[in-house]
Amino acid sequence: MKRTIVVKRTNTFAVRALTDNDEQVLRDLLDASAALWNEVIGKNTEAWESFFTLKDQYHDESNTSVTEHPEPPGFRGLGNRRFPMVGES
After folding, report:
1. Is the dihedral of CA 43, 68, 4, 81 positive or negative?
2. 88, 7, 4: which is closest to 49 by C-alpha?
3. Phi and psi, residue 66, nearest 5°
4. What burial letters (b/e) apply to 42-77, b meaning 16+ CB within 10 Å?
5. Cα end-to-end distance, the chain, whole Å
6. pTM for this one?
7. Disulfide check for 66: which of 2, 9, 57, 77 has CB 3.0–4.6 Å away?
8. pLDDT of 31-67, one tens digit each?
9. List of residues 6+ apart from 52 with CB closer than 8 A
10. What is residue 89's predicted lDDT score, i.e. its pLDDT?
11. Where are the domains of the chain?
12. Confidence band for 87, pLDDT divided at 50, 70 and 90
């Protein structure tokens, strides 16, 4: 079964550079931030795709390669409550 994960997020900032140098620093910062965010999204997508693959394999009775119930990526359970762990891979 093919799953499609779509993540849409927009961060909007109102900034005003006071000098040409400030403008360049802001552009560099925004470029670095966008690159980092794209890397995080890629890692997150990879982790969730892996989770769903393992889950499908776990529930496939003809496949004995996955014997432990897979857990969602980046989550830790506390009783019946689950909390996302920021920065985990």
Report:
1. negative
2. 4
3. -115, 110
4. eeeeeebeebeebeeeeeeeeeeeeeeebeebbeee
5. 24
6. 0.58
7. 57
8. 998 899 888 888 888 988 999 999 999 999 999 999 9
9. 3
10. 47
11. 40-89
12. low
Residue 20 tokens, joined: 């040409």
Tell me which residue of 53, 57, 19 sits closest to 72, measured CA to CA: 53
Phi, psi dihedral angles at 82 (to 5 degrees): -125, 140
**Amino acid occupying residue 34:** A
Q: How far is CA 34 from the centre of its chain?
A: 14
Position 6 pLDDT exceeds 90: no
Tokens (6 digits) for 48: 């969730």
User: Residues of the chain with pLDDT > 90: what percent?
Assistant: 39
Answer yes or no: are the C-beta atoms of 19 and 28 closer than 8 Å: no
Sign of CA dihedral 6, 2, 47, 33: negative
Which DSSP string corresponds to 6-42?
Answer: ------------SSHHHHHHHHHHHHHHHHHHHHHHH
